[in-house]
Amino acid sequence: MRAELPYRVSERHGLPEPFAEVAPAADEIIFVPPQGFSSTWERLLRSRHIADSARALELGEDRLWILEEGERKINRRRIAFEDLLEVEIGNVLLHGWVAFKADGEDPIHIDFNAVVLSTFEDFVDGVLMKLRDDDQREDPGVLADLSSLDLKFRNAIRSRLLPGETLKTVTFGDAVWGRKALVLRRRLVAATALVLTDWRLLVVEEGEALRDTTYGSTACSIPLNRIATLAKTEDGLLVSFQTRREHCERQIPFSKPEGLTPVIQEATKGGSVGQS
Fold first, then answer.
1. Among 106, 264, 87, which residue's Cα sits nearest to residue 160?
2. If I label 249, which of 14, 123, 229, 232 is the partner at 20 to 30 A Cα–Cα?
3. Per-residue model confidence as pLDDT tens digits over 29-72
4. Which residue, among 99, 165, 100, has the nearest Cα to 132 in the 3D structure?
5. Which residues contact 25 (CB under 8 A, 6 or more apart)?
6. What percent of the chain has pLDDT over 90?
7. Which of 32-36, 138-142, 262-266 has the highest mean pLDDT?
8. pLDDT exceeds cutoff 70 at 76
9. What is the mean pLDDT of residues 107-135?
10. β partners of residue 220
11. 3-state SS of the chain?
12. What are residue 219's DSSP bridge partners?
């Protein structure tokens, strides 16, 4: 199915009707026409079903706005930055997506054609700058040694760092593959880099595995001030969030749990993040 590409809108009045009538003022706006991924990618990659409707994604001074076309009206959701727990951006071939997880809210997932990936990367960087909650730093940050990583992961990590962000420590876990019914080879755990910076935990994961080849990547940012505790488990890293509404945890699969110790120790320095 052919679909229009998402595009930036300079001001809310530039949105198509009826979005323009209900859109709040915002610093940045992206309009996302129906992209046609819900049925295709659910069938090919077994991803969860996402309703395929027109949406607008807005970056405000202290919150996100998500406007979605309903049967009778435009539904509006607002997410305060102080409630954001995770911000994710990823791409696999021509399929791109952004996702936001907030305290006590249903996750938000927006698919788009990866031809316009840079538009959403700029938007996500804007959100992350708000979450970092400081003046934009023009000086380059200090980088930990990335020489042990392959070129793909080195580039993926560097491309996600904000201006002036300091990279403190990195640990890497290889992909784990297995066989189903002794015939079909499948990936059990994705190759993953856990990156600790001066203000967030950045999880860079290799993209979808199609046969023996992987495509794309996913980058998930978790601000350190949203983390209550970090714990090493047999399957990877368990993140418990600081929340005001409902208890929330996230298990990050990782093939080398022994390599998590430096990340946990560095994150718990100063007492801002707990260890369990």
1. 87
2. 123
3. 999 999 887 654 444 444 444 457 899 999 999 999 999 998 88
4. 165
5. 11, 12, 60
6. 67
7. 262-266
8. yes
9. 93
10. 88, 203
11. CCCCCCEEECCHHHCCCCHHHHCCCCCEEEEECCCCHHHHHHHHHCCCCCCCCCEEEEECCCEEEEEEECCCCEEEEEEEHHHEEEEEEEEECCEEEEEEEECCCCCEEEEEEHHHHHHHHHHHHHHHHHHHCCCCCCCCCCCCCCCCCCHHHHHHHHHHCCCCCCEEEEEEECCEEEEECCCEEEEEECCEEEEEECCEEEEEEEEEEECCEEEEEEEEEEEHHHEEEEEECCCEEEEEECCCCCCCEEEEECCCHHHHHHHHHHHCHHHCCEEC
12. 89, 204
End-to-end CA distance of the chain: 49
Query: Is the model's pLDDT at 175 over the cut of 70?
Result: yes
Confidence at 135, pLDDT banded by 50, 70, 90: low
Spatial CA neighbour of 194 closest among 248, 230, 229, 247: 230
List, in sequence order, every residue forming a beta bridge with 74; answer none if it has no partner.
69
Q: Which residues contact 156 (CB under 8 A, 6 or more apart)?
A: 193, 204, 217, 219
Query: Does the pLDDT of residue 92 top 50, yes or no?
Result: yes
What residue type is 158 in one-letter code? Answer: R
Measure the CA–CA gap between 81 and 124, rounded to whole angstroms: 12
For residue 263, is pLDDT > 50? yes
CA distance 262 to 270: 15
Amino acid symbol at 227 = I
Residues 6+ apart with CB under 8 A from 192: 172, 173, 203, 204, 205, 206, 252, 253, 254, 255
- The answer to whether residues 222 and 249 touch, using CB atoms and an 8 Å cutoff, is no
CA–CA separation, 182 and 185 (whole Å): 8
Strand partners, 172: 193
Cα–Cα–Cα angle for 215, 219, 224, nearest 5°?
160
